[in-house]
């Protein structure tokens, strides 16, 4: 009898901490499930995918792997000069961060910034923007436009112009100048229109 | 063939002999650099180099410096003093003692083949790409500044302050060393470095390994001076007129 009692008390002694542990776990799990586990709402990207399926895949993949993809891409770029748009930080920023938000530049210090919303939520430090720009910026056109300016002031340009004017009609001259000198900036269109204006005014004065 | 196409063909064939597909007139080379496909890694078959004719730089290189500042966004550090300011490219005035002749030349990273900055870097951040461009991998630079001390051209500088609004193609940040990277972002896209575009009459950019490139041809014919050639660093930047 005594032996049975002692076994029973031993069982009780062992099971009490187990029960405490179990109840603690269940309370924790219950409270966790009661937590809002949804990530915070993010700013909408400027470009949208063609279908919801592709978008969902992109979101699921990037939510989990963006840091690895960016890390891999950064080394590919720095060491091997691979500058494709896929996983390029600039491409991410250009699509996910607006140029202006409430009339101001949206910086990563603002919690509404696409990256900062989640990084703030999970308290993960965001290092990229110590060096990289955190909002879309139009590429500089100045150096290229300088070169265009230099070119238009150069002797070679005047030689070509006089050659063209001596040999072909004005319309073709305008076209060929515009087609041979191609730069992919907005300013070029100004230069082109300047050219055509000049050409047309010249044509007018000739007549 | 349309009238315009036939005109263009005649026009271009009239200029034949000036080599390169992108010549538009004798002596004017808009793009000698061929763009590699963006997804293709750089190769060591290419070695980028630059030739600067200081006699043709009428402003001593001011236009180049301005173009560099605009391309890479340096030069307006608010809190740094003169000694701390970023210097990707500097105008150096030299006087010959004997004759008193003075000259002014732009000096930047010379993109050495055996770069001392790469030798001394403890983390491997100071690196030479396969195509000969020397640059700092700022992701792993710890800002120790050994490379600044090792560089015989004083080409490197250290960022002393927090920066915002960097250029998208040129990340720069406090605590890292930086220098001329021959505009890697532009070169990878098949463009010339910004300084070369700013002074096309005095500067030439191209592949030193390709004997048919314009820069190799003129270097073969006339040679080009290295600054501190005695160090035998085989620099990628060569000068005329010093």
Automatic annotation (TrEMBL), chain A:
Location of the region described as Disordered in the Swiss-Prot/TrEMBL record: 188-207
InterPro entries: Multihaem_cyt_sf
Protein name, per record: Uncharacterized protein
Domain of life: Bacteria
Organism field: Cocleimonas flava
Signal sequence interval, chain numbering: 1-33
Higher taxonomy: Bacteria, Pseudomonadati, Pseudomonadota, Gammaproteobacteria, Thiotrichales
UniProt keyword terms in alphabetical order: Signal
TrEMBL record, chain B:
Domain of life: Bacteria
Record keyword Transmembrane helix present: no
Entries under InterPro entries matching the protein: 4Fe4S_Fe-S-bd, 4Fe4S_Fe_S_CS, DsrO-like, ET_IronSulfur_Cluster-Binding, TAT_signal
SUPFAM superfamilies (UniProt xref): 4Fe-4S ferredoxins
Key words, A-Z: 4Fe-4S, Iron, Iron-sulfur, Metal-binding
GO molecular function: 4 iron, 4 sulfur cluster binding; metal ion binding
Domain 4Fe-4S ferredoxin-type: 132-161
Pfam families according to UniProt: Fer4_11
Keyword 4Fe-4S: yes
Name of the protein this chain belongs to: Molybdopterin-containing oxidoreductase family iron-sulfur binding subunit
Source organism per UniProt: Cocleimonas flava
């Amino acid at each position: 009898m005594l032996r049975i009692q002692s076994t029973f008390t031993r069982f009780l002694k062992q099971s009490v901490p187990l029960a405490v542990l179990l109840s603690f776990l269940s309370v924790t799990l219950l409270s966790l499930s009661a937590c809002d586990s949804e990530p915070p709402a993010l700013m909408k990207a400027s470009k949208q995918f063609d279908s919801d399926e592709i978008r969902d895949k992109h979101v699921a993949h990037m939510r989990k792997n963006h840091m690895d993809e960016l890390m891999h891409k950064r080394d590919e770029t720095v060491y091997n000069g691979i500058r494709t748009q896929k996983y390029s930080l600039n491409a991410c920023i250009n699509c996910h961060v607006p140029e202006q938000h409430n009339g101001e530049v949206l910086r990563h210090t603002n919690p509404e910034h696409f990256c900062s919303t989640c990084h703030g939520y999970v308290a993960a430090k965001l290092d990229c923007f110590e060096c990289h720009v955190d909002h879309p910026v139009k590429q500089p056109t100045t150096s290229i436009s300088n070169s265009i300016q230099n070119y238009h002031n150069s002797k070679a340009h005047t030689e070509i112009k006089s050659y063209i004017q001596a040999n072909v009609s004005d319309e073709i001259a305008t076209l060929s100048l515009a087609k041979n000198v191609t730069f992919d900036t907005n300013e070029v269109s100004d230069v082109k229109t300047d050219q055509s204006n000049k050409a047309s005014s010249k044509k007018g004065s000739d007549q | 063939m349309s009238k315009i196409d036939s005109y263009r063909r005649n026009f271009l064939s009239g200029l034949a002999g000036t080599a390169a597909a992108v010549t538009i007139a004798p002596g004017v080379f808009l793009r000698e650099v061929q763009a590699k496909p963006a997804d293709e890694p750089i190769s060591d078959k290419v070695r980028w180099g630059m030739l600067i004719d200081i006699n043709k730089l009428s402003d001593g290189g001011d236009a180049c410096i301005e173009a560099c500042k605009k391309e890479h966004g340096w030069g307006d550090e608010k809190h740094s003093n003169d000694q701390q300011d970023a210097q990707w490219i500097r105008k150096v005035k030299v006087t010959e003692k004997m004759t008193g002749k003075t000259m002014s030349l732009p000096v930047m990273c010379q993109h050495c083949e055996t770069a001392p900055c790469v030798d001394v870097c403890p983390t491997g951040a100071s690196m030479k790409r396969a195509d000969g461009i020397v640059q700092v991998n700022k992701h792993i630079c710890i800002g120790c500044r050994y490379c600044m001390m090792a560089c015989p051209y004083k080409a490197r500088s250290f960022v002393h302050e927090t920066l915002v609004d960097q250029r998208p193609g040129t990340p720069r940040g406090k605590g890292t060393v930086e220098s001329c990277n021959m505009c890697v972002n532009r070169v990878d896209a098949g463009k010339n470095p910004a300084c070369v575009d700013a002074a096309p009459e005095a500067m030439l950019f191209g592949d030193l390994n390709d004997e048919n490139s314009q820069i190799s041809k003129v270097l073969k014919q006339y040679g080009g001076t290295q600054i501190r050639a005695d160090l035998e660093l085989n620099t990628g930047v060569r000068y005329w007129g010093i």
